Amino acid sequence: MAAQETNLKFPLGKIEPNSLKYFGACTLGGIIACGPTHTSVTPLDLVKCRRQVDPKIYTSNLSAWRSIISKEGIRGIFFGWSPTFVGYSFQGAGKYGFYEYFKYLYGDRMFPETNRTLVHLGASASAEFIADVALCPFEAIKVRMQTTLPPFANTMREGWSKVVAQEGLSGLYKGLYPLWARQIPYTMTKFATFEETVSLIYRTLGKPKESFNGLQQTGVSFAGGYIAGIFCAIVSHPADVLVSKLNADRKAGESAMKAVSRIYGNIGFPGLWNGLPTRIVMLGTLTGFQWLIYDSFKVFLGLPTTGH
Question: Source organism's superkingdom (predicted)?
Answer without folding.
Answer: Eukaryota
